[in-house]
Write a structure and sequence with these properties.
Order of helices and strands of chain B: HHHHEHHEHEHEHHEEHEHEHHHHH
Low-confidence stretches of chain B: none
Structural class of chain A: alpha+beta
Structural class of chain B: alpha/beta
Strand content of chain B: 5-15%
Number of helices of chain A: 8
Oligomer: heterodimer
Number of strands of chain B: 8
Distance between the termini of chain B: 35 Å
Shape of chain A: elongated
Distance between the termini of chain A: 28 Å
Bound molecules: flavin mononucleotide, iron/sulfur cluster, FE2/S2 (inorganic) cluster
Radius of gyration of chain A: 18 Å
Largest sheet of chain A: 4 strands, mixed
Order of helices and strands of chain A: HHHHHEHHEEEH
Chain lengths: ~160, ~425
Amino acid sequence: MSKLQELEKHLAQLPPAHPERRAAVVPAMQALQTERGYLDDAAVEEVARLTGLSATEVEELATFYSLIYRRPVGRHVLLVCDSLCCAMNGGKQLLTRVEQMSGVSLGEVTADGALSVLPSICLGLCDRAPAALVDGEALGPLDEFALAALLQRLQGED
Amino acid sequence: MEAVLTQHLDPAAPLGLEAYRGVGGYRSLAAAFDLKPEAIIKTVEAANLRGRGGAGFSCGVKWRLRGVDAAKPRYLVCNLDESEPGTFKDRHLLYGGPHQIIEAVIVAAYALQSERAFIFVRGEYATGGNGLKRALKEAEAAGLVGANIGGSGFDLQIDVHLSAGRYICGEGSAQINALEGRRPNPRHKIPRTSIKGLWGQPTTTNNVETLVNVPHILLNGADWFRDLGINGGCGSKLYGVSGKVQHPGLFELPTGTTARELIFDHAGGLAEGRSLLGFLPGGASTAFLLPEHLDVPMDFDPVAKAGSRLGTGGIIVLDDTTCPVAVALNLMRFFARESCGFCTPCRDGLPYLAQILAAIAAGEGQVEDLALLEDLCEKIAPQSFCAFAPGAVMPLTSSLQCFREHYAQHIATGRCPFGKANEGGL
Ligand SMILES: Cc1cc2nc3c(=O)[nH]c(=O)nc-3n(C[C@H](O)[C@H](O)[C@H](O)COP(=O)(O)O)c2cc1C
Ligand code: SF4
Ligand code: FES
């Protein structure tokens, strides 16, 4: 059973005004994003239906949370830290290099839909600066070679 | 000092239930159920375990003040949102020892007689969060979580909430709004969340590092815990050292270990031929300390006396190739972006500070900019709705004092004395 179905089953047992319906809004957004890649307008409506919130209330949260995407992103989203410890260890140059080597600018999607690159706040990997995160996998310290190998893996798949 | 919290941590292969029990895991449950809730709280207070989330408030006092007759249901929130630059201790706890966290939450919930607990995990730690959910299922299946735990009559449900980004979700009251599915801006200080918190019920929030100390305190006693510290500190502390050091890392050491030991003995010191410019002792939202403070014990009171905050104990080191103006700009951009936008001094003030700093860094600063920056910091901090903005201006205010001549040179010469690019020059 997918996370979304699990969630729907759980919410179906709750009376309409139960506070835990609203409390499920973040898991609901995450479940739909996992299935569809990002939260499109239809997904926002569906989250609203599931949780009893208005579409505007869902939109407020979807655009507040940095890990919820309201526009298409690549199958892999590479988060590159731009906070202090990484910036002190080549993080800013890494961001530029990733754009150059991947051929995609920050926030865009590669033509084949494989990859998006986004700057991120501190990833809790300051002991591995400059650090990055993709598909839940911690990366760092990311030097030129590690970056090249990573991009080859992420972009060279299909 | 023998490892306590990190003894069985293994991020590559965290211990499953049986293996964890094999090394003594979950033994503190029996100790807790024998000791009864009030006695647990007394022991924790006697141990002088201070909050590892940054404020250093005594855990035992916090639990005692919640009161035994607080309205039911009561909630416990384990704060694992860790997003303070320079801080990675909670990540090591999560990825390396999920069962140690679950054991701690059970004991804390029992002490507080709270039958529902939430572990709030930042979205970027999703993989660790999934490991925690797997461990929780194991614990539930073994009857360690659920109804009538170990025949004690105590019931507990634990929910793991995976968040979706944004630093402000680590602020206690904002975190409660996030759990309720509301916009995660902080709440007004009154009523306190310990009285009216999650869904209007009494709610206790503790950082995960704070909580994982409690089982060890129950098993070994308050005196054992106090004696782990040095220079007046109590217990062991997960220190992080990063920035311009050769071997950045996490070090579990006696609370009260000095900055000199942490930076030079454990983190390998600076690069060849470099000298220390300064360091942030407790993550981004603390004031700079200088080489003269190297022998200050990294504990709450001594660091406060030296003019900064221990905060998370995540030390960020700057050396003599680091431009303090570029550091201040990096930090202010972080804070301006992470403002929740709820109140004007922070939402509009921090971007303004970043804009002025960017001009100075780019060699377009004006002579009166320094007074303007200081004036803005003085106005923003007391007017803002939560502690985020005061934390945001703290490194800037101290940078303007500690590294005045660097700013003056940027303005006078129109370029960075280190010859660094105007912004990336870190
Ligand atoms: C802006 C801001 C961010 C915070 N982020 C965290 C955090 O990520 N983790 C945490 O445990 N506490 C964080 N805190 C502190 C919490 O509000 C709370 O005081 C703490 O979790 C209480 O636990 P403790 O007493 O065990 O330290 C933050 C506070 C502020 C003002
Ligand atoms: S100080 Fe900043 S983070 Fe705190 S409520 Fe105001 S805008 Fe939000
Ligand atoms: S500053 Fe980059 S991971 Fe912490």
